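To whoever picks this up:

The parser on our side crashed when reading a file containing two proteins. I've narrowed it down to the boundary between the first structure block and the second sequence. Both blocks are reproduced below exactly, byte for byte. First block:
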Amino acid sequence: MSRRKLLGVGALWDTDMGLIKYVAVPLAISFFAAGTITANAGQYVVRPGDTVWGIARTHHLTVQRLVRDNNLRNPDRIFPGEKLVINEDAAPVPAAPAAAPAPPAPAPRLSTAEAKSIITAASLRHGVNPNFALAVSYWESNWRQEAISSTGAVGMMQVEPYTAAWVGPQLLHRNVNLRDPYDNADTGVALLRHLLNVFDNPKLALAAYYQGEYGTRRYGIY
């Protein structure tokens, strides 16, 4: 009788035949084994439907930390099979010894009319139906520039800082300050314009505004 040695999930080495044989392994076992290996190695293998926010929450990390540790240039684009570094036990990187920076100025409180005017102007600049952008802002923040979400999304358009770090240089060709209401509106509306161009469908563009461009393109609306 030949002896077989388990090489990995679904792979056996047959000592008599000198061959690697692949056998069916229950999907749940495969995921469990893969998850265990990557977790012990300080890595996470991206699975279909994953988002940066979800991975960070599962591993008790901030989104900013996960983005920085993996040098993610566009956090909305992560791909199944991609390996992410997970530093669960790493202490936050200390700031260089220097005078403490001044705290960021609080976002201005705008009247509803002021907020809607700024969003409408941004919509006209980017060729987006103002009603569409206004509806997104109403749902996200009730047109409140001072709104900050539990995940760190900022302002009227509730843009995540890591998203702004991509939208600013790539779509607006400049850095943006999400606490500035004009920059906030410009960033959120520019992202909507980009997603409308990508999907040519306002429902899919809206889905991508929440769940990311890649996940929407591949899996549709969650």
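<<boundary where parser fails>>
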Amino acid sequence: MDDGSVADGTQGRPDEAVGPADQRWGEEVKEGSGVRPRPGDIIAAPELRVQTEPLVGPDHSTPLDDDEPQGTIPPSPLWAMKDRRHIQWHLLPAGERHPPIRDAIGDGDETVYIIDDGHHHVMVGRRVGGVEGECEYCLVGRQPIALYESLQAGRTAPSRAFEGAAELTLCGVAREEGVLSSNVFDVTRYSDAGAVPADFLPGAPYRHFTSALEITAG
């Protein structure tokens, strides 16, 4: 059965020109070659005098990590927390890696999401609301791992997950339709949980904004 694979086992797409059989994602694609860029490809043009950054092509990108568990945490809060955490797990030497954490605690509007941030901290996040088809807003903060253990054990309610958190930030996550990539940016930073609007905290319903929120983070 023809599954669209090219000779080397990579997946081709019938609606576009594909590169040579030995092409892999993250390689150079020459401008004007007729090859449609894929996620991570670098566009090369003769007139460019500096090395370009990898570009996300107009197709589906790979997951954030090849081993990222699917479904535990929605893309927007996951991207925001991974972008704002201090320690990037995949960059650590194998012998120094801590156990990765991907967890969702609470139900409905009280749900908070947790990922690892080194051996002693976690990132906490929640979905606040969004502008349909444009951007989703997520509240994120950094907590000691003891807070995560307390949430797991039921000693701390999800509604209190951001109390005492450091680096509390309302992040915007811009998502392009048909491209599983993101652009994470700071909207507002808060000194502590008491400065966060009540309708942004766990327990408040998801908000459907009619326009983008004003960016006040300098």
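After patching the parser it read the second block fine. The CA atoms of residues 159 and 201 lie 7 Å apart. The mean pLDDT is 75.
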